[in-house]
Write a structure and sequence with these properties.
By secondary structure, the chain is an alpha/beta fold. It is built from 15 helices and seven strands.
Length: 413
């Protein structure tokens, strides 16, 4: 008969084995859950400390920040193109699933652009050709590039691209402001209020400036973000990047034609006093120009405007700093355009403007030689605002992502 001592020993051994087995099963389930979250875009939480101290410093920014689709390819800037090549051919995954307030302003990357099965572009020139001449199979259908892909970068990848520029300038009219707004939506992961200075909201009318109203409501124009520094200073946690302080991008509204000397002097002062670059810096700056509807698609007036603004950048930026320039067109207009504007701003006029401005800027005798990203094909089969000129939130997100792709393609390999 078994002694009480042996019985107790065996019982204790069984309890130990049961505890060990339970621990192993728990760890396996946890591992599967983490893997599933990485693979399927689940919300992972990570404490984001800024660069001013360590975990023990109470002054640190210790809010919990959603980090979208963390994977080994999206953390380091130099691996962005390797990321595209590695993920080429995989099923499309919605990269916006963890954005804020999707119930108020629903957007999905898979309904905006379809490029996962297309090969990565080999150069910025190839990208501009493919992105500009794509199309849609029906009104508001997903846009598809012609040839190589328009890659939908997650927010951290966008931040990685921006951190490699000393500053990214947007200079142009109201439709370019909407592209800048799309960029702010991506960086803040918020299609509802991402383009707006929510810290300046005072009443319910200001609160109405969300989603589509942030794009096409004239009342909301003064509440739009024009400089990422405004967000850093007033709503720092909303920027979903590891190194928020390294981001530098600004929108300068400028649709006057001809551009007055006063306005050009203002731009020069802004370049000299508000830029984040200095002589000797190795980072390039980027300048995104946009004009068209505000000058009734007049090619001559646009070229003169562009020459004047371009010259200010050449004269103000140190010669040691590379300048990457891009001109983007306003795109098509909708049937809501008033009858008296059809000749200058209708569908035919906008297409002709895009073709002519591209030819003028690429001509061998052109002094500017600025590449063109055309939005006519990306906008012609889409819904428009009541004035027939402003695009939907989804189209502005597409435009912003096209610009991001071009910026990334201009970085060293």
């Amino acid at each position: 008969m078994m002694s009480p001592q042996i019985h107790a020993l065996l019982y204790g051994r069984r309890l130990t084995l049961l505890f060990q087995a339970t621990t192993v099963v728990t760890l396996l389930l946890l591992g599967i859950n983490v893997y599933h979250s990485y693979r399927h875009g689940g919300n992972m939480k990570m404490i984001n400390y800024n660069s001013y101290g360590d975990e023990g410093d109470e002054s640190l920014d210790e809010e919990w920040t959603d980090v979208e689709n963390l994977d080994p390819y999206s953390i380091y800037p130099l691996s962005l193109r390797a990321s595209r090549a590695t993920k080429h051919g995989q099923p499309a995954v919605d990269r916006l699933g963890n954005w804020k307030e999707l119930d108020q302003c629903f957007v999905s990357s898979t309904s905006i652009v379809n490029s996962m099965d297309q090969p990565p572009c080999e150069s910025a020139k190839d990208f501009l050709e493919s992105a500009s001449f794509g199309g849609r199979l029906g009104t508001d259908a997903t846009y598809r590039a012609r040839g190589c892909s328009i890659w939908w970068h997650n927010t951290q990848e966008v931040c990685d691209v921006f951190e490699q520029y000393a500053k990214i300038w947007f200079v142009g009219d109201e439709l370019l402001e909407n592209v800048f707004g799309g960029l702010m939506m991506i960086i803040r992961q918020d299609a509802n209020y991402g383009a707006m200075k929510t810290w300046d909201f005072r009443d319910l009318k200001d609160m109405s400036c969300g989603c589509q109203h942030s794009v096409d409501d004239s009342y909301c124009a003064e509440l739009r973000v024009k400089d990422i520094d405004q967000v850093i200073e007033n709503d720092y946690p909303s920027i979903n990047c590891y190194s928020r302080e390294l981001l530098a991008t600004e929108m300068i509204p400028m649709s006057q034609d001809p551009v007055s000397q006063e306005v050009l002097d203002m731009l020069k002062q802004r370049l000299e006093h508000r830029s984040s670059y200095q002589a000797g810096d190795s980072k390039p700056i980027a300048v995104i120009y946009g004009l068209g509807h505000s000058v009734n698609n007049d090619v001559g007036r646009t070229l003169q405007w562009l020459q004047n603004v371009h010259q200010v950048f050449l004269n103000s930026v140190p010669e040691s700093i590379p300048i990457k320039e891009l001109f983007i067109t306003s795109g098509a207009t909708g049937p809501q355009i008033p009858d008296d504007q059809i000749f200058d701003r209708g569908v035919k006029a906008t297409q002709e403007f895009e073709n002519k401005i591209r030819a003028a800027l690429s001509a061998s005798d052109s002094e500017l030689q600025i590449p063109v990203l055309g939005f006519w094909n990306a906008t012609v089969q889409t819904s428009f605002s009541a004035d027939g000129a402003h695009n939907t939130v989804e189209v502005n997100l597409l435009k912003a992502m096209m610009v991001i792709n071009w910026l990334e393609m201009n970085l060293p390999n």
